[in-house]
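Listing S7. Sequence submitted for prediction.
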Amino acid sequence: MRSWQITLLLVPAAAGCITGTVPISEHGSKPVPAERIYQRELTVPGPGRTATLKFLRDAGALGSACTHRIVVDGQLVFGIRSGEYQMLHVAPGRHSLELQIEGGICPGLLSTPQDTVLGDGAEETYRILIPSLGARPTLVRIDATPTPAMVPGQTTASPLLQRDILQFILALDDDRDCKQRTLVKTEVVNPATSANGFTAVERWTLDRCGTPTPYRVIMHPGPRGGTDFKVGPE
């Protein structure tokens, strides 16, 4: 009889473990302690680091014995445990994010890398979760703040179009040796007129770690309204 009582008590506990981890908010989380931060300079604002990445790891017992390591651009930045939160300040441009797992009973796991392109002032938030028992931990973007349009120079693009063009240029500019890329100038090469079908040609120049890098931007009316654009290096 006693053995049956023990069995019945264990069944609800086991069933509870099958559910996934529980999402948390930034205000209800604990900060990652200093001993698990390996690139501390990224945790505070600095020259050229004007974009923000936030990471929230779910709470709950599932997977809580394992430390999840966040790798940014191939470098281990911090280790995060259940119910913790960390913010990073990075330079605008393309960044690669990976999730690794470590811990005594946890198998080593390198997630599929995912790329993101951040503009000046952009902010993205990522959730680290385990959907269900037996599922692999997952890194999912849950929120993003659009890049404010603050491009310098004489562009004729609308604020929304400025943001889209800048993000496209930063994605196209794939020099991974330079992480401090800033748009320093825009200028009109050929203005849009009725004679050229209202097609505007502009030059947008990036400062790539001290080297001016110009891109040609061509804008013209889209067939279904709005504005289409093409971007390429000069």
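Caption to Listing S7: primary sequence and predicted structure tokens for the chain studied. Residues 21-145 form a domain with the Immunoglobulin-like fold (CATH 2.60.40). Residues 39 and 135 are 29 Å apart (CA to CA).
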